[in-house]
């Protein structure tokens, strides 16, 4: 997963005002100790210029990334920098309203979304982005409780939110709605819109081993998955062609514009350790309760089907807050289908029969997602007739 190239990635040894800004954010979160360098403008200027991204900063960044469900690399790129800024906000720190041009993002928005859901209103996904669904849910709450229904979370609305107890109990209401809509939609793929996102592309080849590139292999996988899903009646879209490399924002916008029912991102992994190998899957989740129920279910299904059909090592499913999972308006999963840097995984992935088995595994996982529980076959056994 690349970081937005418009921002210079900050890493161990870097110095300057941008590092000082990272220090300030980490201190506000209690991840770095205050160093007493809070004097006036004259005293602050040399501190800004000479602030160093040292080992303590890297450790604090890694801790923050781990807790926030980001890629843990100890560096500050676009996604980590944005997450640091979002983590600074608590509900009540600022006025919250819907701005279609520059949507407000932050932990205060997560708190608002969770509170509105607890009171029985649908505010859309708990993703920390104040979008149109959050505004609709907030307006409905304000209208029912005699407040000015302007969709803005100001002092009066905050007081009402804090005074009222939970109205919905027995689970996370928005997630229960999401699961229920999948059950109601029926056990078939005809008419389903599924977006398959092969990672990297164009000049971004991903990990390369000899003449083998991650971009080419995942595009081959995506094409095989596309064929199998289409044969089963689904409408399938790929986010890119063989020589294209859309940004993460373009990939999620494509899926949202297509009004997809499911989003599947495909990657391969690599690591300097000779022991790193296996299959992992990822779904949207903050680690503090907010997550995609259907995304988590599908992440588990897809990973287990791939493991059962290829014999690769099972590395589990994990919640992440990557924008690729967070900004899609449908259940989204990233599937890492093995390590190109590991000799055994690489041999398997270079075998067209194994790639076909992975494609069949994804098809089976999608089909099982829509099957009623009593009709769900054991992992690794489901085959669609004629496919």
UniProtKB/TrEMBL annotation:
Q: Which GO terms describe its molecular function?
A: N-acetylmuramoyl-L-alanine amidase activity
Swiss-Prot/TrEMBL keywords: Hydrolase
One biological process term from GO is: peptidoglycan catabolic process
Signal peptide range equals: none
Q: Which residues form the MurNAc-LAA domain?
A: 252-367
Top-rank lineage group of the source organism: Bacteria
Q: Name one GO cellular component term.
A: outer membrane-bounded periplasmic space
Q: What's the name of the protein? A: N-acetylmuramoyl-L-alanine amidase
């Amino acid at each position: 997963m690349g970081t937005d190239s418009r921002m210079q990635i900050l890493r161990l040894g870097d110095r300057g005002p941008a590092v000082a800004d990272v220090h300030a954010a980490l201190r506000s979160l209690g991840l770095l100790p205050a160093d007493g360098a809070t004097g006036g403008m004259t005293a602050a200027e040399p501190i800004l210029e000479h602030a160093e991204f040292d080992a303590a900063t890297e450790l604090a960044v890694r801790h923050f990334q781990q807790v926030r469900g980001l890629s843990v690399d100890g560096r500050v790129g676009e996604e980590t920098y944005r997450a640091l800024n979002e983590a600074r906000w608590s509900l009540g720190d600022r006025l919250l309203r819907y701005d279609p041009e520059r949507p407000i993002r932050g932990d205060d928005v997560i708190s608002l979304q969770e509170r509105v859901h607890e009171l029985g209103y649908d505010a859309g996904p708990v993703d920390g982005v104040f979008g149109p669904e959050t505004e609709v849910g907030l307006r409905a709450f304000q209208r029912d409780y005699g407040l000015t229904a302007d969709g803005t979370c100001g002092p009066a609305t905050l007081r009402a939110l804090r005074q009222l107890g939970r109205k919905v109990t027995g689970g996370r209401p928005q997630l229960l709605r999401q699961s229920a809509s999948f059950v109601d939609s029926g056990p078939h793929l005809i008419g389903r819109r599924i977006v398959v996102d092969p990672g990297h592309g164009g000049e971004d080849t991903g990990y390369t081993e000899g003449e083998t590139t991650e971009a080419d292999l995942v595009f081959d996988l995506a094409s095989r998955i596309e064929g199998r899903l289409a044969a089963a009646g689904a409408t399938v879209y790929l986010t890119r062609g063989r020589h294209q490399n859309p940004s993460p924002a373009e990939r999620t916008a494509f899926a949202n514009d297509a009004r997809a029912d499911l989003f599947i991102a495909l990657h391969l992994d690599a690591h300097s350790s000779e022991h790193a190998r296996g299959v992992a899957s990822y779904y949207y989740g903050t680690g503090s309760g907010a997550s995609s129920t259907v995304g988590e279910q599908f992440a588990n299904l897809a990973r287990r089907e791939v493991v059962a059909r290829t014999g690769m090592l099972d590395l589990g499913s994990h919640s992440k807050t990557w924008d690729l999972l967070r900004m899609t308006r449908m259940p989204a999963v990233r599937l890492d289908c093995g390590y190109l840097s590991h000799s055994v995984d690489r041999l398997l992935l270079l075998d067209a029969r194994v790639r076909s088995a992975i494609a069949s595994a994804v098809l089976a996982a999608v089909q099982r997602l829509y099957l009623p529980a009593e009709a769900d076959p054991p992992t690794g056994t489901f085959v669609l007739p004629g496919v």
